[in-house]
């Protein structure tokens, strides 16, 4: 008997690839990087990042509430609106007490913190906004989305670094299977392309230094990769209990069939050298889905472009899935959106299954000879994917794996 899964009935995306699901999908399939020099990062050791296109029209639709929100909450609301519309849901008609919200973020409203710290330093305490904390707290994107739609069920923020968005989907699935909710708006959001955040990652040695050609700086699995590229993004998926989706005749894009999570307990920032935690998470996810490893047809890799992280992840994939499923990594195009990345990549994985098309790994000019997985190169690869895996790993040793299957 197949274990129960939960239905993915809606997707909303705001990424450097574009505002909206379709714009992001087209850009990811193009294989063209989005990183560019940023005026806000001028004169810093790393002065480029992946930014969301101008939001003027989308923010206008938020009307007067936009001004009081940090950017990470703004883009979360835009993505949530698209996801709810995609799911053909009417918030005026749903049972609000059975609707939950869970959004992951790594930093929360770091842009607001940065701006208000500058005001305190330059002008004094009386110039600090009373909205500083409502804008900056990590739970506020989830709170604002719940407020927007009148969702009265549980709401939560997951903060597990670069696994935050994926962990939001794990928790949402748990709520649904436990009967706490009928619908959960789940995903991640991040808008941390601020000088302090960028310098902090640079000091760790985590960022790419390929400033001669920023668009090609993010190079997952490439022999010349030297770090990730900062990005901002938001992704919201509408998850529903399968019986609830069937009862209302909802369009089901995919089924979140299983999840796995583990902790390395090895190092604050470096992954376990043997990928032990990632292996456990993958095995747990497949077991929860009632699937065998040989049934996996595709992997959306975490693939940050760091020398150590990519090598370990590739080894885990080749060891655990030796039949050689296709592998892609979207960060070559979209950059690394930290707490949003797991949700963005989950959404792209679902679209890959729906479109029967695997996007290429961007900027992969010379594959690392030690990476022995089936990387999709140069252009999208037509492939019917019945079972797919999406990996997310974060500082602190967090490992999260999601398994999706065709409905």
UniProtKB/TrEMBL annotation:
The protein's name: 3-oxoacyl-[acyl-carrier-protein] synthase II
UniProt domain Ketosynthase family 3 (KS3): residue ranges: 3-406
Single annotated GO MF: 3-oxoacyl-[acyl-carrier-protein] synthase activity
EC number annotated for this UniProt entry: 2.3.1.179
Signal peptide positions (record): none
Assigned keywords, A-Z: Acyltransferase, Transferase
Entry-linked NCBIfam families: PRK07314.1
UniProt xrefs under SMART domains: PKS_KS
Keyword Coiled coil part of the UniProt annotation: no
InterPro entries, sorted: Beta-ketoacyl_synthase, Ketoacyl_synth_AS, Ketoacyl_synth_C, Ketoacyl_synth_N, PKS_Beta-ketoAc_synthase_dom, Thiolase-like
PANTHER family: BETA KETOACYL-ACYL CARRIER PROTEIN SYNTHASE, POLYKETIDE SYNTHASE-RELATED
Pfam families: ketoacyl-synt, Ketoacyl-synt_C
Keyword Amino-acid biosynthesis found: no
Assigned protein family: Belongs to the thiolase-like superfamily. Beta-ketoacyl-ACP synthases family.
């Amino acid at each position: 008997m197949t274990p129960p899964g939960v239905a993915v009935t809606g997707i909303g995306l705001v990424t450097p690839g574009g505002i909206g699901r379709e714009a992001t999908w087209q850009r990811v399939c193009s294989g063209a990087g989005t990183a560019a020099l940023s005026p806000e990062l001028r004169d810093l050791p790393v002065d480029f990042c992946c930014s969301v296109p101008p939001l003027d029209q989308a923010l206008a639709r938020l009307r007067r509430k936009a001004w009081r929100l940090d950017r990470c909450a703004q883009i979360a609301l835009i993505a949530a609106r698209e996801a709810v519309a995609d799911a053909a849901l009417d918030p005026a008609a749903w049972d609000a007490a059975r609707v939950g919200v869970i959004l992951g973020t790594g930093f929360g409203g770091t842009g607001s913190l940065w701006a208000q710290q500058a005001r305190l330093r330059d002008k004094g305490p009386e110039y600090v906004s009373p909205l500083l904390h409502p804008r900056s707290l990590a739970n506020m994107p989830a709170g604002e989305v719940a407020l927007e739609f009148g969702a009265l069920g549980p709401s939560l923020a997951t903060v597990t670094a670069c696994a935050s968005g994926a962990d939001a989907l794990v928790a949402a699935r748990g709520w649904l299977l436990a009967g706490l909710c009928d619908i959960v708006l789940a995903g991640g959001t991040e808008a941390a392309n601020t000088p302090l955040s960028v310098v902090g990652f640079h000091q760790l040695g985590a960022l790419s230094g390929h400033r001669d050609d920023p668009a090609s700086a993010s190079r997952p699995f490439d022999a010349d990769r030297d770090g990730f590229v900062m990005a901002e993004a938001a992704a919201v998926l509408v998850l529903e209990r399968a019986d609830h989706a069937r009862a209302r005749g909802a369009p089901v894009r995919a089924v979140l069939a299983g999840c796995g999570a583990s902790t390395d307990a090895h190092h604050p920032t470096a992954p376990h050298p043997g990928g032990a935690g990632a292996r456990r998470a993958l095995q747990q996810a497949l077991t929860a889905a009632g699937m065998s490893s040989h049934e996996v047809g595709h992997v959306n890799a975490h693939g940050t472009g760091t020398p150590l992280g990519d090598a370990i992840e590739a080894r885990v994939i080749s060891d655990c899935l030796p039949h050689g499923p296709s592998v892609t990594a979207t960060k070559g195009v979209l950059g690394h959106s930290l707490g949003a990345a797991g949700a963005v990549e989950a959404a792209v994985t679902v679209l890959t299954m729906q479109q029967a098309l695997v996007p290429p790994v961007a900027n992969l000019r010379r594959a690392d000879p030690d990476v022995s997985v089936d990387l999709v190169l140069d252009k999208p690869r037509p492939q019917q994917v019945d079972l797919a895996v999406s990996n997310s790993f974060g500082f602190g040793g967090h490992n999260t794996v999601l398994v999706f299957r065709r409905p």
